[in-house]
Amino acid sequence: MSISRRKFFSWIGAAGSAVFISSKAHGAKKHFEGYPESYGVLHDSTRCIGCRKCEEGCNIVNKLPEPEKPFEDLSVLETKRRTSTKAFTVVNKYTGTKNKSAPVFRKSQCNHCLEPACASVCFVKAFKKTEQGPVTYDPSVCVGCRYCMIACPFEIPTYEYDEPLTPRVRKCTMCYDRIIENKLPGCVESCPKEALTFGKRDELIKTARKRISRYPERYEDHIYGEHEMGGTSWLYLSGIPFKETGMREDLGVTPAPELTAGALGAVPIVVSLWPVLLTGIYAINKRKEKISKQEKDDAVSSAVEAANSEAEEKLKAALLKADKDREAAIKREVKKAIDEAEKAREQEALSEKTGEES
Amino acid sequence: MEIKRHLPPWLTVVTISVSILFFAFFAYAVKNEKYCSQNTPQKADAIFINTLKSFGPLEREEVPFLHDAHTDALDKQNKDCSTCHLSTEFSGEKILSLKFKRLEDKSRKQVMEVYHSECIFCHKEMNDTGAKSGPIELCGECHIKDPLYTSSAQIPDFNKFMHFIHTDSLKDPGTGKTDCSTCHHEYDSKTGKAGSCRYCHKTETEENPISMKQASHLSCIPCHKEKLADNTKSGPIKCGECHDPLEQMKINKPQNIPRLNSNQPDFVLISSAPQTQKETAGINPVPFNHMSHEQHQDTCRICHHAELDSCSRSCHTTRGSEKGGMITAEQAMHRTGSKQSCLGCHNAVKKEKACAGCHSTIESSADNKSMCIKCHMTPTDTDAVKNMDSEAVAEMMIESGKPVLETYSDKDIPETVTIKEISSQYGPVEMPHRFIITSLMNGIKDSKLAGTFHDTGTLCQGCHHNSPASKIPPRCISCHSAPFDENNPLKPGLKAAFHQQCMDCHAEMGIEAPLSTSCTECHAVAGKNKLQDF
User: Fold this and answer.
1) Given phi > 0 = left and psi -120 to 50 = alpha, else beta, which region is B421?
2) Ramachandran region of residue A155, left (φ > 0), alpha (ψ -120 to 50) or beta?
3) Among chain A residues, CA nearest to B367
4) pLDDT (tens digit, 9 = 90+) per residue, A250-285?
5) Which residues contact B51 (CB under 8 A, 6 or more apart)?
6) Backbone phi and psi for residue B81, each to the nearest 5 degrees, phi listed first
7) ipTM more than 0.95?
8) How many Cβ atoms sit within 10 Å of the Cβ of residue B196?
9) CA–CA distance, A321 with B438 (Å, rounded to integer)
10) Nearest to B486 among A184, A193, A199 (CB)
11) Buried residues in B14-30 as b, exposed as e (16+ CB within 10 A)
12) Residues B102-120: tens digit of each pLDDT
């Protein structure tokens, strides 16, 4: 007897839900709201004048190559730029619908997510969310798969394609090395207007709220990065809707790793449990097959035996009958022959009698 | 032979489709250019007939209609308004309906019938006499998809200047007086009180008062016509003469016009205590210069938005009343978002460029409780006040606090200030200190409002904020030092304090030079050292 299709699916279903429930229980922990006392930066675009001093500061502290055009050249703001291996931060110019004559500047760099997508996809743990807030990168373990670049919702990490031997992924480090030395990040240090405010992330959110409530007409009532993608260490205030400054408003508040945690969390269970389960199913199946084969064989042999004996009996009966018939036939023939002989003798006797008479 | 005579069939198809596409694109482009051009003529008398909208979506395009073209055409035939507009009895008076050939919109069918039969009938009649006429046959001639003009009509603002022009021209040559009841039909000759038409005549016709639109057309035009027939000075009759923004701009604003006379007080003592009670409850009353505020507004309606009466008598009472929308007297005077309130109107003035530099950053007076006393003044002579009426008290208090617009004398104001505390990449800044103060003073020198609310040192506090006014204010570095003070997160560090103060003020005041992003326009070029790894 073999396993039915329906039975197979019901087993698989049971196994699947067991895995799901166990991973659910695993993932039901409280939403991670960042390391306590971790640092962040608040960018206030109503204060930003687009002077590019932050780009210059970043360039200097990270010892990046000299740019093609000097930082004093503000004509580069006319084209939209993105971060590169030579510029970990760029300022772009936007025109809002509210006041077309007043351009709005927005600085772009790694947002240092509380739960970074880059770190969650990296299978060699090259990215790390540090307790201080920065998301750091360790080039010594990086294999150059560039999954981080695909995973980042803000399109920030860049890759040294022009480096043939030791290409690295490059992005803003929030000046991790400087932060642990109690120094300000390069961009924050060089901003003339405190359009960039450095501090504890929790405090920055309070500060941002205070600014909004003090000047409600000046600000959009939203702190970008407080909840986006589960929250980022870099926060933004703006006087115009955030999407008008090229920021994505479709990201939602779910941290990227959470989107894959269910599936990836199931991997160890799948890896450890499924072989056992499937082997078990296989073994049970095999055993069943074996038993049924045995039973079948037994049945066949007994059936054959029965049939044989029956046939024998039939044969015996037939032979018996044949014997009887033959005997009967012999008897009949004998009797017939006797009768005929009798008749012949009578005939002979009769003719002898007639001859005698004649 | 066969092959040579005929083009391959696919080539024919391709050629035809390409030519059709090309033609279609060309036609579209031409049409689009015409449609999108900014030069679509604007006409003040353009009406777009879409009455059927009130019965549901329109089946055909709305019909553009030039009112003045029609009145002109009728005028030539000595026909008047009644050719198109029916009359009805309304409160014992015969008034003209603003609707075309009907008194009310009964049904979709009725309205449609009226327009179709009456318009076409008249056009036909005109056509038969050989005169130029409107469309007769084709639907699309009236129901035009892309009208050749748009409406520029604007509701004319009947302000105090317009009022003066009317009272002046309606003056009785003998007595030199004007009969207010000519227009103000609810005029009380005893009190001399006459409110704005809009107090009764609202946007839509209500039970009795007809809508403002109807009231103005039915009152203004017949009167103007009458004057025109008498060959005296008259006003406009045609749509464009009143509604065309260009025509509106042409109206001369007469200078030095007399005050609108509605027996209003010159001074008011606004008190939270009942009128009968001289003693006030806790907070001092506010002496209000009614006369001076009249000069700054074009109409009484700016403040007296519902009726010409004391704000708190029956509407904005101390506890609020249903008539006043439950807005209390305190709210009516202090609401910052409202155009009619004291604070709301003053805040709007503070947004003007001359004021915005300081006022965009300093604390609003609504939050600064020490500013209350600026309006809620302490009476100077409490004994004398007891025997005076409230208007006289108000006048006395206002006289005692006459606006003075001054600051410290030049010798007390340093001519330049060198900012050099933190110069590193760039050199120090030589700030033209006295020039800035003089410019700020020049910007507000004609403002009575600034004079009333600014003291001698107030202007200095625009920059030297958060400390008492003084000839020698504390230096910036006394408060602003290292950035990102956790105990005072809104206080910028010294570098940002300077840059924010200068740049934000310049931006608010519309000062373009020096450019915020051009460092060396303020800073000396050579600094102590170049920006390096800090």
Assistant:
1) alpha
2) left
3) A214
4) 998 988 888 877 777 778 788 888 889 999 999 999
5) B99, B105, B111
6) -55, -35
7) no
8) 19
9) 150
10) A199
11) eeeeeeeeeeeeeeeee
12) 988 889 999 999 999 999 9
**Phi-psi domain of B54 (left: phi exceeds 0; alpha: psi -120 through 50; beta: other):** alpha
CB B516 within 8 A of CB B496: no
Point out the residue among B483, B489, B531 whose CB comes nearest to the CB of A56.
B531
Beta carbons within 8 Å of B63's beta carbon, 6+ residues apart:
B48, B49, B50, B115, B142, B143, B144
Task: Show the CA angle centred on residue A331, arms to residues A328 and A335, nearest 5°.
Answer: 140
C-alpha span between A84 and A90 (Å, rounded): 9
DSSP-assigned letters across all residues of A148-162 = HHHH-TT---EE-TT
Q: Which chain B residues are Cβ-neighbours of A198 within 8 angstroms?
A: 483-484
Residue B532 at interface with chain A, using a CB cutoff of 8 Å: yes
Q: Is the separation of the CB atoms in B393 and B269 below 8 Å?
A: yes
- Scan for tokens 């000062």, then name that residue: B511
Contact A251, A229 (CB under 8 A): yes
- CB pair distance less than 8 Å for A200 and B489: no
**A-contacting residues in B 473-502 (Cβ below 8 Å):** 483-484, 486, 489-490, 492-493, 495-496, 499-500
pLDDT tens, position by position, B394-431: 888 888 877 888 889 999 999 999 998 887 788 899 99
CA distance B457 to chain A (A): 25
Chain A residues whose CB is inside 8 A of the B505 CB are: none
Sheet strands (E) in chain A: 39-44, 90-95, 103-108, 127-129, 135-137, 158-159, 169-170, 196-200, 234-237
Amino acid, single-letter form, for residue B327? I
CB A42 within 8 A of CB A199: yes
